[in-house]
Amino acid sequence: MNGLVVFAGNSNLALAESVCDGIGINLGKAKVGRFSDGETQIEIKENVRGKDVFVIQSTCAPVNDHLVELLLMIDAFKRASAKRITAVIPYYGYARQDKKVAPRVPISAKLVADLITTAGAARVITMDLHAGQIQGFFTIPVDNLFAAPAILDYIKAEFDNNTVIVSPDAGGVERARAFAKRLNTQLAIIDKRRLAPNKAQAMNVVGNVEGKTAIIVDDMVDTAGTLTEGAMALKEHGASEIHACCAHAILSGPAIDRITDSEIKTLVVTNTNPLMGNAGKCGKIRVLSISKLLAEAIQRSHTGSSVSSLFV
Asked: Is 275 helix (H, G, I), strand (E, B) or coil?
């Protein structure tokens, strides 16, 4: 790994350190702080001239602070004559704003892609983009990894064959179908009507869930409205147990209270985002690590090896 260096902002230092352990290197030294007026202050504390630099930074809450940290770190490395800069973004914020859903609204996911590219990133490694077409918003290569292998291994180890994979809405059918195919089990779909942003109402269940262990599969859980409404609908349709899996644990607002009071027995997430506040105390939440996957992707990117085999 000669010439490879890994740095991180403040969003998920535990994940960055775990990735570095997997690679067998130390996390790069950088000062990522704030001036008294709130401006982000960046200072790289070691030489990166001619190095292959990877910056690990999820754009999780506070989203704007972590995004600015990423942009300024990339600019600092560019001005320090790094050979190549790769933005490793386990959770890509603003991904849900990937199209115009009303007149006079921005396509924020595209703007963030432009900012990262303009700052000086030559490549992006991310995970479970909310919409795969966001890769096309970039003019630089994007490696979109998936947490599916880790989640599939967990499901195979913890559950018997009497399961059904459930998509929480029509948009997640492709993801749920891929899970069901790999697990050789049935598929169900929740017919959901969204009443307003961050508010959803489950209406019906398409597929047979009666007497089965239902496993809801999604890419992220934010306020948990979709998840808990879906769990209620599954219970009403006769599911014996309800579990949920997702890649990104955002868990904002009333999410933890909703999950705690819901029919869901367990929520399995990955560590793309750190669990904030009372989320870490919720007994229903279990965290899977994706550090080995990111470490492997970084090493392959550095050596020029194929990364496509990781796109499971």
From this structure: coil
Give the C-alpha separation, 88 to 4, whole Å. 14
Express each pLDDT in 18-28 by its tens digit. Answer: 999 999 999 99
126: which strand partners? 89, 144
Which pTM does this prediction carry? Answer: 0.94
Q: Active site includes 284?
A: no
**In this structure, which amino acid lies at residue 252?**
S
Task: Spot the catalytic one: 78, 99, 110, 192.
Answer: 192
> Do 166 and 190 form a contact (C-beta atoms < 8 A)?
yes
Beta-carbon neighbour count of residue 1 at 10 Å? 13
* Nearest of 218, 265, 261, 208 to residue 239 by alpha carbon: 208
Residue pLDDT, tens place only, 76-128:
999 999 999 999 999 999 999 999 999 999 999 999 999 999 999 999 999 99
